[in-house]
Design brief:
The chain is mainly alpha-helical. 84% of the residues lie in helices and 0% in strands. It has six helices and no strands. Helix 1 (2-23) runs parallel beside helix 3 and helix 4 (126-148) runs antiparallel to helix 5 (157-172). It is rod-shaped, with a radius of gyration of 32 Å.
Length: 207
């Protein structure tokens, strides 16, 4: 049983070592590849040591006295061997999800700003909105392309920060902050309504 478990684990080690090179090419993932290979080598050391321990017991006809201990060690190492490369690739998924979430948060803010200004016919922020939207669109396309090629890295956070700043500037622009523009517009409309109603009341009183 130990020999069979060892042979399976060794075969998987060889397969996963090749997978580390294929799925984590050094041009893009040198650090990840080296880390994955180091973890694989560590597990390979464990199965070899376990096999050696069992061989020694077998030689002394004492294998049965440990109740399958070394097979369990090899099986646990084998399970780890089969997960190492996939866990490294999971980083791509996590990174893509994080980028997507942060971009969406800024897109939602920008969409709200565009909607509030548009329904009031206000155009003072159009240039800033267009610039922020271009940053979002460009980064979204860039990330999608890199993700499709499994080449995402954690080097896009400066772009995220640039988008956040661009959207925030539409809030903070002293000359035409969008929320100030909409508030002034609403106040003007409200005042015009009050004046119109007052004038109507005066005209009705004269009639």
């Amino acid at each position: 049983a130990v020999v069979a478990a060892y042979n399976t684990a060794k075969a998987n080690y060889l397969t996963q070592s090749q997978e580390a090179i294929a799925k984590l090419p050094s041009d893009n993932y040198k650090d990840w590849q080296e880390a994955a290979v180091a973890k694989l080598v560590d597990q390979y050391r464990i199965i070899n040591e376990a096999k050696a321990e069992d061989d020694a017991l077998y030689k002394d006809k004492k294998s049965a006295t440990v109740g399958g201990k070394w097979k369990d060690v090899i099986d646990a190492a084998n399970a780890e061997i089969n997960n190492i490369v996939d866990r490294a690739m999971q980083y791509q998924e996590d990174l893509n999800d994080d980028y997507t979430s942060k971009i969406k948060a800024q897109q939602d803010k920008l969409t709200k700003i565009k909607g509030e200004l548009s329904k009031r016919g206000l155009t003072e922020c159009d240039a800033d909105i267009k610039a922020a939207q271009k940053l979002i669109d460009d980064l979204t396309a860039d990330i999608a392309e890199l993700y499709a090629k499994h080449e995402l890295k954690n080097d896009k956070y400066d772009n995220i920060n640039a988008i956040t700043t661009a959207v925030s500037n539409i809030d903070d622009n002293k000359s035409h902050a969008w929320n100030t523009l909409t508030a002034n517009y609403d106040a003007k409309v409200s005042m015009e309504g009050i004046i119109a109603n007052t004038q109507k009341a005066l005209n009705d009183a004269k009639a």
